[in-house]
Amino acid sequence: MTHDVAALAVELTDMAAADHRSSVGANSDDPAEQLAWRRLTARHGDRLGEIMDEYGWPTAALVGEEAARAAWLIAQHADRQLDVQRRALQLMQQAVSAGAAGRRELAFLRDRTMVNEGRKQVYGTQIAGVKDGAPVPWPCEEPERMDELRAQVGIEPFDEYVAKFAMP
Question: 114-153 burial by CB neighbour count: b if 16+ within 10 A, else e?
Fold first, then answer.
């Protein structure tokens, strides 16, 4: 089992690195780049599904911090595989309850899944677009409580968060 877990950690970090390299294609004007991104995230989503079948949520205790973060990133980008995203959310929620995963990452995954389901998000982590040079979040359940809810899970206030993406 130890060898399997070490190999799993390497596989997850390799998947995240590939994700990072090809993520520029996600919003590319080139359909071939967009297609390559979709293929990669679908393949990774399928594989994460198999990993969850075998191991449950790949926690830091199981695979190490870097690989656990990689698993979260793969779930986050499985946008066209809602079954995988919902399952990751459920398993990650259990891991957070057990103190084995981070509430901040869970909040991002919850928002992403809700937006993909066509629902309002909770924490305002998912950006719909840019208006007058400022990022605008997808609709939130309680926009007036957004920063309070963000603080509860360790996410900086919305204005600080979007300042990182602000268009000059």
Answer: bbbeeebbbbbbbeeeeeeeebebbebeeeeebbebbeeb
Closest CA to 124 of 74, 162, 71: 162
| Residue 37 half-sphere exposure toward CB, CA atoms < 13 A | 18
Give the type of residue at 94. Answer: Q
User: d(Cα 47, Cα 12) in Å, to the nearest integer?
Assistant: 10
pLDDT in tens, 117-148: 999 999 999 999 888 888 889 999 999 999 99
C-alpha–C-alpha distance, residues 148 and 136, integer Å: 18
pLDDT tens figures, 52-68: 999 999 999 999 999 99
In eight-state DSSP terms, residue 27 is G
Both tokens of 154, joined, read 């360790």
Q: What's the angle, vertex CA 46, arms to CA 100 and CA 28, rounded to 5?
A: 100
Phi and psi of 145, rounded to 5°?
A: -105, 5
